[in-house]
Amino acid sequence: MLSFGGYEGGFAGADVRIDELRSKLRRWVSRKLLLPIVVLLLLLWIGSGIYVVGPGEVGVVLHFGREIAIAQPGLNFRLPWPIQRHEIVDVQRVRSAEIGYRSSVRGGSFTQRVSEEALMLTGDENIVEVQLFVQYIVQDPSKYLFRARDPESTLRAAAEVALRSIVGRNTIDYTMTEGREDVQAQVRVYLQRLLDDYQTGLLATAVQLLVVDAPDQVRNAFHDVVRAWEDRERLTQEAEGYREDVIPRARGEAHQIIQAAEAYREQRVLRAMGEAARFSAVLREYQLAPDVTRERLYLETMERVLPKAEKFILSGDSGVVPFLPLRSLGMAADEPERGSGR
């Protein structure tokens, strides 16, 4: 048998030396490195409280789960976790919701109809298909984060409720034609009231009715009705335009005729008054000197008449026969005979 006692003693001495080395190393590490490591870890922990809020965003700071501040865009600091934490919300991004349809861009842009959302009952008990597009932003980040469990889904449900409620108050013809803008405005007001009641922190910026149409089974008949209504409106507008053109023109012509008649009346009245005044003046002169006035009137009359007459001067021994229009009288007498065919 071989004895390994010497080797066993050597192994035992080596273990003692290793234990001593370990104890020295532990003392040295505990003294030299423990404090810097602790300081480094503490700095890293405190530095974790630095965060950045981007443009158009706000940060909500929570202290043990309770909201204490709103951080603005830029570099901000809070106490590290688990004492404080923060949530960042984009308050300027315009979000959208689709009611009654879903749009997709996979393999090309197309729209898929969602019948369970789009079909609804109108006030006159008709079924109409409506597709609604809603745009909204986050107005209150605190309510958006902590008051509603899922604000996006809440908005979709509220938009469908508002749409069905407003459409159910109006007839299908009014909703499809002249009342479309009014229905949009009512849906927006009702939707915002629901969002405020549910404390979602959302603000509906735009509500637009994309499709308002009858179901496929009766769509053609409703389109015929709409076209007939549009034709009626067009003919009514044309008739009103014709009336607005004819009536003012007739009034203008009547006014012109009345003005002309009044002017003619004034003219005749003034002329008659002038002639009456002239006759009265002549009468007064005649009463003062009848012979002279009679002679003057005769001469004035001759002055007006004689310049227009054809005058002949005859000598004392010639008669008037050569100057009579005998030939003209004879030709005038022959013309009836020629006309009778003799």
Descriptive overview:
With 342 residues, the chain is α+β, with helices and mostly antiparallel strands. Among the domains are: 12-90, no CATH class; 95-213, Tetrahydropterin Synthase, Chain A. 56% of the residues lie in helices and 20% in strands. It is built from 10 helices and 11 strands. It has helices at 5-32, 34-47, 115-118, 141-146, 151-167, 172-176, 180-197, 219-288, 290-305, 326-340, and strands at 50-53, 57-63, 66-71, 74-77, 84-90, 95-99, 101-104, 110-113, 119-121, 127-138, 202-213. The strands form 4 sheets. Strands 6, 9, 10 and 11 form a 4-stranded antiparallel beta sheet that branches. A 3-stranded antiparallel beta sheet has the order 3-2-5. α5 crosses α7 (180-197) and α8 (219-288) packs across α9 (290-305).
Summary of the model, kept short:
Helix content is 56%, strand content 20%. By secondary structure, it is of the alpha+beta class. Among the domains are: 12-90, no CATH class; 95-213, Tetrahydropterin Synthase, Chain A.
Can you give keywords for this protein?
single chain, alpha+beta, Tetrahydropterin Synthase, Chain A, 56% helix, elongated
